[in-house]
Write a structure and sequence with these properties.
Blueprint: E1 2-7, H1 16-27, E2 32-37, E3 44-45, H2 50-55, E4 63-69, H3 73-86
Antiparallel strand pairs: 1-4, 2-3, 2-4
GO cellular component, one term: cytoplasm
Main location: cytoplasm
Subcellular location: Cytoplasm
Length: 89
């Protein structure tokens, strides 16, 4: 399992457009991927589902932990981390 934590930089958080792009990026991978908001394991989602991702209500400044487990786990976490670092609005 590979895991990374980071702070959301998008000015408007992960609203519909960036959440859609994030979800599409996650869906490319075979690994099981999870996103945890602010370290609260009750606020966990499968980012391959945009509805699940949007249900977390992710705003600028929130801490997200991205974890992946599977054959392409390193690539999945790296791409999703880079997505959040870019701060796409």
């Amino acid at each position: 399992m590979v895991e990374v934590s980071m702070i959301v930089k998008n000015e408007n958080g992960l609203h519909a457009r960036p959440a859609s792009l994030f979800s599409k990026a996650a869906a490319k991978y075979k690994s099981d991927i999870k996103v945890i908001k602010n370290g609260d394991h009750s606020k966990t989602c499968n980012p391959k589902s945009i509805i699940s991702l949007l249900s977390l209500g992710i705003y600028k400044g929130d801490q997200l932990t991205i974890s992946a487990s599977g054959e392409d786990e390193e690539f999945a976490v790296k791409e999703l981390q880079e997505f959040l670092e870019k701060g796409i609005d």
